[in-house]
Amino acid sequence: MDTLSFHLHTQADVHGLRQVFRLPENLFDDDVIAFAQQKYRVLLEEEIFPHHLQKITAITYVLRYGEKDFYIRTLNNGNEEKILTDFFYILETIQPHLICRQQPKILLYRSLINGISTPSFDWLNAVDDFVSSQKYLDDLSILCGFPLLESFDKNSQEEVQTLNDYLIYLRYALSTNAIDADQYHQEIAIVRHFLSQYSQYSHWQTYLREWQ
Questions:
Q1: Are residues 103 and 78 in the same domain?
Q2: How many domains are contained in the chain?
Q3: What's the CA gap between 100 and 61, in Å, rounded?
Q4: Distance from C-alpha of 163 to C-alpha of 137, rounded to nearest angstrom
Q5: pTM (2 decimals)?
Q6: Average pLDDT in the 94-114 region?
Q7: CB atoms closer than 10 angstroms to residue 165
């Protein structure tokens, strides 16, 4: 099955916060964010902004499709509209099974705000329930023998986390008999081969070294 694991890089939509709370343009961005955090702390008992106020700045994804094709990429060239358009093009073209630890509805809200179409297939229901419902994915990564995020610099951690989520999904597929042991080991070999081809990147050298 063609599979895509992805991670959304987001930041507060300061322009949107100004509009929602009718804040003056001369108020510093940090002050806008602090004001909104205080409001949502009272309204929602948390400081995380709702989906529609999380602006997408990049999307990191791991894509496994076809016989042995495997890629790790980050879409970060352009504004939010272009990032979403490029990502949705991939989804529309391949229509993969999706893995995401975040709420994929962020994509829906931000596409609505940007006025762009989402893929025509039922992509929200293509998101794997097991991964999206887990609160302890990083703990599972450790227990499964995958490299610790702390071993990598901040710029590499999103790619590493997205790959770990994909590998956890493979373990889950094995555990639930969606794939057998031979298929599982074949998929792991494909990942290891890919990483060995990118040994010029120090974080993938570290990953292979620490992967048990």
A1: yes
A2: 2
A3: 9
A4: 12
A5: 0.90
A6: 92
A7: 25
